[in-house]
Amino acid sequence: MRVTSKGQVTIPKDIRDSAGFKPGSEVEFRVDGDSIIVERAKRRARSGMSRGEKAVAALRGTRTRNIEMSTDEIMKLLRGDD
Asked: Is the domain of 38 the same as that of 55?
């Protein structure tokens, strides 16, 4: 294995399968002496709604309720610009 210029390595498929890593899985790294340990990230409690959930909530019913929103306002909402 080689580390890329971006610091990336490929986890071999058999190891991904045995660890249960799927595309999009979150992992954590730990240093233990001379070893680096990669493990599934622990679930963290979410604080409030995600950006996507906020966008859906704000746009729900837009055909009748939020008709005054401009395209720029909708794009700002979808991009998460605060």
From this structure: no
How does DSSP classify residue 28?
Answer: E
Whether 26 maps to a domain, the answer reads: yes
Nearest-angstrom CA–CA distance, 45 and 57:
20
Task: In whole angstroms, give the CA distance from residue 26 to residue 56.
Answer: 24
Report pTM.
0.47
Does 72 fall in a domain? yes
Tens-digit pLDDT profile for the chain (82 aa)? 899 999 999 999 999 999 999 988 889 999 999 999 999 888 766 667 777 787 777 777 655 555 677 778 778 877 876 5
Beta carbons of 29 and 36 less than 8 angstroms apart: yes
